[in-house]
Amino acid sequence: MTNLRLALLLAVAGLMFAYPSYREFTRLRGRLAELDYEVAQLEDENRALREHVEGLESDPLVIERSVRDVLGYGREGEIIYRVEFKEELDDEAGEEEPGKTED
């Protein structure tokens, strides 16, 4: 009976010391999963950016699209219409929405 009590006492003591380590392990495993997901997202973004750079280096249509979108250029004789939404105008002017107050 004494051996059983000693074994039980050792088992409980072992669990008391192991439980915080197990909690830390599960927390770190969850964090690893989050980081793996973030790495996958960044790899996808890098791939897309790399393809865009390659297009800018070699494809005249990609270059033209970027010049049109970023700089607002057009071909000779074209009329460029720029549509700005209220939120964009407010952001540029530093205005708030009506009824909103700063905290």
Describe the model.
- With 103 residues, the chain is an all-alpha fold.
- The protein has one domain.
- Helices cover 75% and strands 0% of the residues.
- The chain contains 3 helices and no strands.
- Helix 1 crosses helix 2.
- It is elongated and about 100 Å long.
- It starts with a helix and ends in a 10-residue tail after the last helix.
- The mean pLDDT is 84.
Summary tags:
75% helix; 103 residues; 3 helices
Estimated structural class: mainly alpha
For the biggest sheet, the summary is: none
Q: Could you state the order of secondary-structure elements as H and E?
A: HHH
Instruction: Return the domain count.
Output: 1
Distance between the termini: 69 Å
Per DSSP E runs of 2 or more residues, the count of β-strands stands at: 0
Bulk shape: elongated
β-sheet strand percentage: under 5%
Q: Which regions contain 5 or more consecutive residues with pLDDT less than 50?
A: none
Give the integer mean of the pLDDT values.
Answer: 84
Helix content: over 70%
How large is the radius of gyration?
A: 30 Å
**DSSP helix count?**
3
